[in-house]
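Section: Multi-chain targets

For targets with more than one molecule, the full set of components is provided together so that the structure can be written out for the assembly as a whole rather than chain by chain. Components appear in the order listed by the source. The example entry contains two components.
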Amino acid sequence: MNLDSMLPTLGEWLKGTGPEGDVVVSTRIRLARNLADHPFTNRSSNHEKAEVEAKLRDCVTQLDLPHKLRYVEMGDLSALDRQFLVERQLISRELANVLEGPRGAAFDDRESVSLMVNEEDQLRLQVMRSGLALDAAWDEIDFIDDMIESKLTYAFHEQFGYLTACPTNVGTGMRASVMLHLPALGMTKQIEKAFKALQKINLVVRGLYGEGSRASGDFYQISNQVTLGKSEAAALTDIREVIHEIMRYERMARTALVRESRQGMQDRVARAIGTLQSATMMTSEETMDLLSSVRLGLHLKLMEEVPLETVNELFLHSQPAHLQKLMGEILDGEARNAARARYLRSRLRDSAGQN
Amino acid sequence: MKCQFCQQKATIHLTDIVNKKKHEVHLCDECAREHELIPDDKQEVNVPAMLHFLVAQSRDEKRKQSIDGEACPACGQKYAQFRAQGRLGCPAEYEVFRSALEPLLERIHRHLRHVGKVPRRYRQGLQERERAELRTLLDAAVREERYEEAVALRDRIRAAETAG
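Its structure, encoded as tokens over all components, is:
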């Protein structure tokens, strides 16, 4: 299985073209589903997992969707390829590295739809969209879910709804996440205050790569926590309201920063781009932080020599697996940091030269 | 009130509320010392020991109905395994371990009943069951000459039929 053809392209969700794109990077909705009359993945033998996988693989690859899904079996992929898919947010870390036995994922060429098989739940459906697009994402995932449900019987309980391996997902099985870029709130130290309101209404904040990850590059994910006793529509409304509130805070903070210290901001952005264009060693963390400043600079029109799409692409390409694929070799530690710096230099000097 | 261990006057009263159920323990000074709830030399109360004692007491009460050792007949997973790993073994466990899961679900979600999407297949079955139930109620109402109720039930059945 060769995934290298995906390397030069960006998933649509990362293009930065969606609604409210200055603050909202992407919207993701996932549904957790299991088949009736089968044990959950954690309690399944390899034989049972293979049976479930075959059923689900046949079902999802035959779905009559405008964008066909391609199925990849995890066992056919190298660790690097699996990590590559994690970085593209098409599969979870668990599916890539933690879980065992027959398991896989199906996704379309836009990388908007992805279905994981034999994750914690037997089926994890995911739809991604650029910008704030909760309704569009819900409509698509609801449609796909209906199509699958017309062919297979889900584990469903009259009182508890869709049954999941972990009781935290039971009910709707829906987790909607919105990824935000909040550099100005970070800079003005207002981020804690902005998030305090979230805890009261049962929404969760996480870093870029999900649970337990640090919010590097000022990226934050906000998602619903309650799945039992609240309808999908109500949960989406809760999130939407909070997102609008946070967007307002972030935009106010951005306006204030430019008004109060335009020169200081310009300097910060210029230094970020300067470092990216000339450093010879670069960690993934530092890259995220610098690119975050550049992204902010572009949205505040403090600079224009780099296209937004290039910046979005570099967020992805500077991740370890992408970098190693681009370089065509396995690199670790210092060699990887040197390669990252080399790659960033060449990309940013090229694009600056074009303008 | 008497000490529940020795019939002397109880001077220590502990109350604990777990899952909306109240557990009380009443002891005399002597028995409290024996259970190391009050240290001999200091006047301070030993809070951790007290909590431990309470938990042990309520566990004793529940021992008969404790489901830790119970296994799911469908997949064989014991409740204790779920407690250790946080993942259920199969869909049937929501029913098998319902009594233990409900307090947990209430803590996580603050609700105990699903609201939202229902699989189409399931919805159809549910509607038929509902209609059958209404028809039974209607028959009973007619038999017992409760006509106002019967009319209301008939209307509900008609509405359900046009909706379904």
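The first strand of chain B starts at residue 12 and ends at 18.
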